[in-house]
Amino acid sequence: MKPFCSGGRGDVKLLNSLQNCELLTEEINPFYFVEPIAPLIAARMHGRNVSLNEVLDRVRKLKSKCDWLVIEGSGGLLVPLGEGYTVLDLMMRLGCPVVVVARNRLGVLNHTLLTIKAMQAVGIKSIAVVLMSCYERDTSAQTNEQTLTELLSPIGVLNIPFLGEGALRPAAIKRNYKKIKKTVALLADFDSFTRVLLNDSQKRLETKSSVDSPRGRK
After folding, report:
1. Per-residue model confidence as pLDDT tens digits over 25-39
2. How far apart are CA 83 and CA 49, in angstroms?
3. Does the predicted model carry a pTM greater than 0.85?
4. DSSP letter string, the chain
5. Number of structural domains, the chain?
6. Model confidence over 41-88: pLDDT tens digits?
7. In which domain, by residue range, is 69 found?
8. Do 1 and 84 fall into the same domain?
């Protein structure tokens, strides 16, 4: 689900179509504002006040209908969703594992590190990072995954390849499913997901250490 959505509702329509329209749009996205601005500001423009408890109630109701519920955020951690709470506050109250998704390009190191540090500062521990590759890979894309793996260890970092133009269309998602099947399966079991990433990350760090050491140089 995507509790808050501002501006276009394309994400919500996509989520609905992938679930064979089994859920109502209002269930997937209970709080929608036509203005493409932060939900708090949009709500004020319409004279609305969406409380954090109201959001949690909607999430819990939908969760009771699902085997697995994935909740999409709305911008960065500190985006104000309502009076007195942000995306980060909602995460804290939900107490669920968090997957940070970021584009694998210049700037992702600072963005991701700041995001992780902010979550850790409030006690969020179940975290994983997924880098999404872009069509045009800049120089940083060659080292971002390895660098984040090193700097964020023991948090796992995974990279998903560029899935092609129009990858967010339902047909394209189904077509590309084989490419990300393993990742999706791991996400369904977060403990396994983080365990696999941790093992993979550790191997990469060990390999790097071996290459950097005097004996590892050729």
Report:
1. 999 999 999 999 999
2. 7
3. no
4. --SEEES--HHHHHHHHHTTT-S-HHHH-SEEESSSS-HHHHHHHTT----HHHHHHHHHHHHTT-SS------SSTT-EEETTEEHHHHHHHHT--EEEEEESSTTHHHHHHHHHHHHHHTT---EEEEEEPPSS--GGGGTHHHHHHHHHTTSEEEEE----TTTTSHHHHHHHHHHHHHHHHHHTSHHHHHHHHHHHHHHHHHHHHHHHSGGG--
5. 2
6. 999 999 999 999 999 999 999 999 988 899 999 999 999 999 999 999
7. 1-95
8. yes
- Return the closest-CA partner of residue 158 out of 192, 206, 110: 192
Q: Which residues are identified as catalytic?
A: 2
Structure tokens at 10: 């394309």
Same domain, 148 and 90: no
Angle, CA of 192, 196 and 197, to the nearest 5°: 115
Question: How far from the centroid of its chain's Cα atoms is residue 211's Cα?
Answer: 32
